[in-house]
Inverse folding.
């Protein structure tokens, strides 16, 4: 997926002398003055050469502007590297440039780039990011160098650029399904009789049965009476159906592994994966997996009172869901919901939350009481608590105890709890595969 590339432009036409230029000028001037004061023409002649050389180098300084263009994509998908093209155009007299590329949370890199006057030099900026959503990335600082490094331009700074980083996905094989399938077509066998591949039973022929479904072997064995074929038997199969899945993301909390940042007094480091980053990845992985199987997927956000993404299918629908996930972010303190949002009948509801408060748990229990199959995906990142102060350690223990009680209550209410591990891609997949074999009401 790509978006229009916003162009960030920067330039400078002011050039300043460096040590390679000022040293000959100062030295030549001092020697020339000393020779004149001491009435020594031979000494004064020694200062003429560096002075003339310095004046000649200053006359050859660049005259035009050094231009820098950064064409960062409007959105990228989080991978090992994020890339953005840049272009540096040098005027006459510029031979090289010192380039420094940086992004928040990463170590800056410096390079000396050779330039050809009048011809653009294309560069590629690469950075890494573990954070999804709106991020400020790709800052470029460029200093042009004249011939012999005698002159240098002012620092041209371009960026950082606001880039929407889309969540990645993990491969998921077996997935849990709703208790009952409501669709008329799809890849999964339903409980009702219809056109499908899995055998339901063998029954007597009745009006409405298709002739191609007659089982002639069973008819010859059971339907022959008195040497004549009296009854016909047909093979009835289970119809196929699609599953409807509603992903419910809780964007009210965006906490990192540092407990000291939970209250909002300190910002989360850009190198730390937050709960919302894990929720975006889990939701994108589930959406891609279900849509690849031919099911319908919708999206609801407990932190925003906006129109939800209705259940649908196809590649464009997946792009819509992934983009909505990347744009989800905490927006103040939302009012508590009086009732759970409406979801289609017979849908599988997947709630992705930290469950640090009662809101998401209460919604999950309400959906379960309405007869839906509900999965609670725990996206709280592992906590770094080795160097916590005493009061923070006690507060974290109290919050953890209440959170564990809340998860226990969910299990007792029939909600299936699945942890989404950050560093163990197979952990969540194995748990989901186990739940896939526990579909209640599945055809036998």
């Amino acid at each position: 997926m790509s978006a229009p590339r916003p162009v960030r432009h920067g330039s400078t036409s002011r050039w300043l002398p460096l040590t390679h230029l000022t040293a000959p000028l100062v030295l030549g001037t001092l020697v020339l003055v000393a020779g004149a004061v001491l009435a020594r023409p031979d000494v004064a002649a020694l200062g003429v050469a560096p002075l003339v050389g310095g004046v000649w180098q200053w006359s050859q300084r660049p005259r035009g502007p050094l231009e820098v263009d950064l064409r960062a994509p409007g959105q990228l998908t989080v991978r090992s590297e994020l890339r953005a093209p840049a272009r540096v155009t040098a005027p006459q007299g510029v031979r090289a440039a010192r380039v420094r590329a940086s992004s928040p949370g990463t170590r800056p890199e410096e390079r000396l780039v050779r330039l050809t006057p009048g011809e653009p030099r294309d560069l590629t900026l690469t950075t890494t990011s573990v954070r999804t959503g709106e991020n400020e990335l790709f800052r470029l600082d460029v200093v042009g160098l004249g011939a012999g490094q005698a002159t240098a331009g002012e620092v041209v700074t371009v960026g950082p650029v606001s880039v929407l980083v889309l969540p990645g996905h993990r491969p998921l094989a077996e997935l849990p399904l709703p208790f009952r399938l409501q669709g008329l077509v799809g890849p999964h066998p339903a409980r009702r009789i219809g056109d499908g591949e899995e055998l339901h039973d063998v029954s007597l022929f009745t009006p409405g049965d298709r002739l191609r479904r007659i089982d002639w072997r069973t008819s010859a064995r059971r339907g022959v009476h008195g040497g004549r074929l009296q009854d016909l038997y047909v093979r009835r199969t289970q119809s196929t159906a699609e599953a409807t899945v509603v992903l419910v993301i809780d964007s009210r909390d965006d906490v990192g592994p540092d407990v000291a940042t939970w209250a909002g007094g300190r910002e989360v480091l850009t190198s730390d994966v937050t709960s919302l980053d894990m929720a975006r990845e889990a939701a994108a992985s589930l959406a891609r997996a279900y849509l690849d199987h031919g099911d319908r997927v919708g999206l609801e956000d407990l932190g925003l009172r906006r129109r939800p993404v209705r259940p649908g299918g196809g590649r464009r629908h997946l792009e819509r869901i992934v983009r909505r996930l990347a744009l989800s972010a905490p927006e103040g303190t939302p009012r508590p919901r009086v009732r759970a949002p409406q979801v289609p009948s017979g849908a599988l509801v997947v709630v992705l939350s930290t469950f640090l408060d009662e809101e998401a748990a209460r919604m999950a229990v309400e959906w379960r009481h309405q007869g839906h199959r509900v999965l609670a995906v725990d996206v709280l990142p592992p906590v770094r608590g080795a160097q916590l102060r005493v009061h923070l350690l006690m507060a974290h223990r109290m919050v953890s105890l209440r959170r564990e009680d809340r998860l226990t209550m969910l299990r007792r209410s029939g909600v299936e709890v699945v942890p989404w591990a950050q560093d163990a891609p197979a952990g969540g997949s194995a748990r989901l595969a186990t739940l896939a074999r526990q579909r209640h009401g599945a055809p036998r």
